[in-house]
Design a protein that fits this description.
Blueprint: H1 3-24, H2 42-48, H3 52-66, H4 73-85, H5 98-117, H6 120-130, H7 136-148, H8 153-163, H9 169-183, H10 191-201, H11 204-213, H12 223-232, H13 237-254
Helix pairs in contact: 4-5, 5-7, 6-7, 6-8, 7-9, 9-11, 10-11, 11-13, 12-13
């Protein structure tokens, strides 16, 4: 008799199960699209890709820069100018102009090495190229190297082209003796246009420097151009300096 309650409960449970199964047939079936695991989705692979290339490129350039002290100077100069142009030297962790100044320091070191160990052709080629580098210290070093080499019209033209764009009066001060040295050898192509352009429309310090120092480059063939510029300049220090230079030239011409 004690088994009857247990049997009754079991039969009730079976009945409920049958009712749930039969009732569920009326429920709609909703299809669910399978979801790809995250590790297999293409988005995950794409997001990881960009980080690898910059790390590799930086590692290559860091290794190249680290080898500068043992590389031939011409090769070292090429490494520096290329990474500087690409803004990828990564020589310092500082901000602002720290990277520029470090590149300049290394370029000057390599120019010194080139002057000792480079061939005359390499020295001339790098002097011409670095005359256009955007730093007055490097330009001055390139000009000094060029002055020690056999004069050439190509090198003089590179110097004139670079100086015509400068705002650096200190660089011009270092250039005048070299330009006079080439002048004595007849390498004066472009001088007049460079000086006229600087004194007429150049930066204030560069224009003032030319107005004060152009005297040795004046001659019967170009003095008229500078007199015309002096008349066109606004009254001020630049005009006064150029007029004074022209008067001194005239006195020397007359033997006074």
């Amino acid at each position: 008799m004690k088994a009857w309650p247990l049997l009754t409960a079991a039969l009730a449970a079976v009945g409920v199960g049958l009712w749930w199964f039969e009732g569920s047939e009326a429920l709609p079936v909703v299809a669910v699209a399978p979801v790809a695991p995250r590790a297999l989705q293409p988005v995950a692979a794409a997001s990881a890709a960009p980080t690898a290339a910059p790390v590799a490129a930086t590692a290559v350039e860091t290794a190249a820069v680290a080898s500068l002290s043992i590389a031939p100077p011409a090769q070292a100069l090429r490494t520096l100018t290329r990474c500087y142009a690409a803004d990828s030297c990564r020589l310092t962790r500082g901000e602002g102009m720290d990277e520029h100044f470090e590149v300049v320091r290394l370029l000057l070191e390599q120019l010194d090495r080139l002057a000792t160990h480079g061939s005359p052709a390499e020295q001339a080629a790098w002097a011409r190229e670095l005359l256009a580098f955007p730093d007055g210290h490097v330009q001055a070093a390139a000009l000094a190297l060029a002055a020690r080499l056999p004069p050439s019209a190509e090198t003089a033209a590179a110097a004139v082209s670079a100086l015509a764009k400068t705002y650096d009066a200190v660089l011009l001060g270092k250039a005048y003796p070299v330009l006079r040295q080439w002048q004595q050898l007849g390498l004066t192509s472009g001088y007049d246009d460079m000086f006229v352009g600087l004194v007429h429309t150049g930066g204030w310090q560069a224009a003032q420097s030319v107005a004060e120092n152009v005297g040795p480059f004046l001659n019967a063939g170009n003095v008229g151009r500078f007199e015309q510029v002096a008349r066109e300049l606004q009254p001020g220090a630049r005009q006064q300096a150029l007029l004074r230079t022209l008067r001194d030239h005239e006195l020397q011409r007359r033997g006074g």
